[in-house]
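A student in our group prepared the protein record below, which I am reviewing. Here is the record exactly as it was handed to me.
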Amino acid sequence: MKKFKIIYLVLASVLFSFCSNDEPTGPPLWTPDTSNVVPYTSEDATVAYEAFNMQFYNKDAKLYYSTTEKSGLGSIWTQAIFWDISMDAYKRTNDAKYLTLINDIYQGAYKEYDGFNYSNKVKWFIYDDMMWWVISLSRAYEITKNDEYLQNSIKGFEYVWNGSYDPINGGMFWDFQHSGKNSCINYPTVIAAMELYKITGDAAYLEKAKSIYDWSKNNLFQKTTGRVADNKIGNNPGWSDYTYNQGTCIGAAVALYKVTKDESYLNDAKLAADYTKNVMSSTEGILPAEGDWNEQGVLKAIFARYTMALVNDGGQDQYLTWLRKNGDVAWRNRDKNRNIMFRDYDIPCPVLTVQSFEACSAVGIMQIAPPAQK
């Protein structure tokens, strides 16, 4: 049994799950207690990343297996998140082998996904899958200065914008059929636009980011609680709680705050972070165990990334101890034979088959949240 309480977690389809519009008040602010947890170190972060690669990286395909059984590759959008983690490992360590890995993963993706031919609707079958890669490609360009990465990022953003944006009612559709407008496309679109604005200086990206953020705030965000809806279909928001939606909302708001210095963006980001901490997490502050044998195991890696942006770019150090504790607890409960961790940080990692999706998130936390001790 899980030891913590999750206020609301829907394991059904992210497209069709709904709940009440009632806005929860949430418990009092939580203060982390790290007295019984041994903090991970920088060396532990390296061990964790090396172990993740040993268990999941396919050196031939230059992408990641879906499980420790090494029988098939993980899904297209999660590979972008794994690529992000490789960049974080490189930035943390400045180890040249991780720079090589960044470039290798790109080559693997280029081959597997039809040379980033976004019009190939067999390889690329939904808009948000594309946008995760648009974001990662822009980050890889910032590290490597390889213009090919930037051009594929720009091309992908243009393709998604032209096919997904609703010029009449605003917002972005998540699928080719335009069945709904999900957080997983809208907030990442803001982040991608801000990444490309930072690189190119093209003000059109900034205006698009502001437009989509405004639509998202008015349609997917509870302004009194910081809760982020999973989707909106017609006039009906689907109030399902997922950490990556909370995280990309935070990331979008922080990116706009960093450029505009508009405090309202920063306030939104803090509200979304507090909702995740005080309502979605356990009473001890452990993030929810999303991903019961599905891709949701990767969600906390996304949340952690953008919460660290809130720490670093928003000056909100109060969230760092919380992220560290999640990494500490996951590392304490790792499978010590393989040094891999699990989606449920609060229980021992299974000793049999584990998915790359569910093993990655705590690894991601350890790469970006600087340890309390060296």
